[in-house]
Amino acid sequence: MNMKLLLIVALACATAADVLKSSKTTSGSYEGGDTSGCGTPHLIKGVTQYRAITSNNKLRTYGIHLPSNYSETHQYPLIIGFHGSSSIGLFFEADTRLDEAQYTADKIMVYPDGINGSWAGANYSTATVPQDLQFVWDMLADIRSHFCIDSSRIYATGLSNGGGFVGTLACNDTVGGEFAAFAPASGAFYTDAHGPNDGCTPARAVTPMLEFHGGADESVYYAGGQGEGGYEPPISDW
To answer: How far apart are CA 48 and CA 203, in angstroms?
Structure first.
């Protein structure tokens, strides 16, 4: 994916929080959410800071970028960006430029790191699906306890392997219920390649989803077929 397309995706993903405000009323049991992080001041604003947590007895890491005008008394929308394979959150952050004020001036950005550079679902993945789902659950708990989050406006985006994991999140009726909407780009949907037989059980009957995919994608084929990490569904069917 070239830089121009990445910037288009970044803008769409960042503005999805505003375009899909109607989903706020259907965000499930997490509307209102844990606000224990509100009231805690933060000196580091406008620059990504890094945090580490323990999940499934493993040390997991993520970066979090607060708006330069962050206030501990204001609840912010949260966008989580999942990097592609053989990568880390920092590279996804640098490529998409989602931290720029023109995209996310009033939002908090989060960039988690997959184990050994990938997310669950592919045949090359180190983590299992339950392990990465638990990590997202634990990460959100950590974020809520330290930062002021609007839990009814949490969104997920991702690229390639990370986009496929966004689809995995959307198909999970527990962790997926944390999110108001999903916006994968060039998603490699390894865990949802065979329709209903894959056990996709979203938290809501109508799940807001915006997927970008180039018809000439040479890595994750639009027409589907064997991909780098397993079989991928035709995007038109998915």
So the answer is: 31
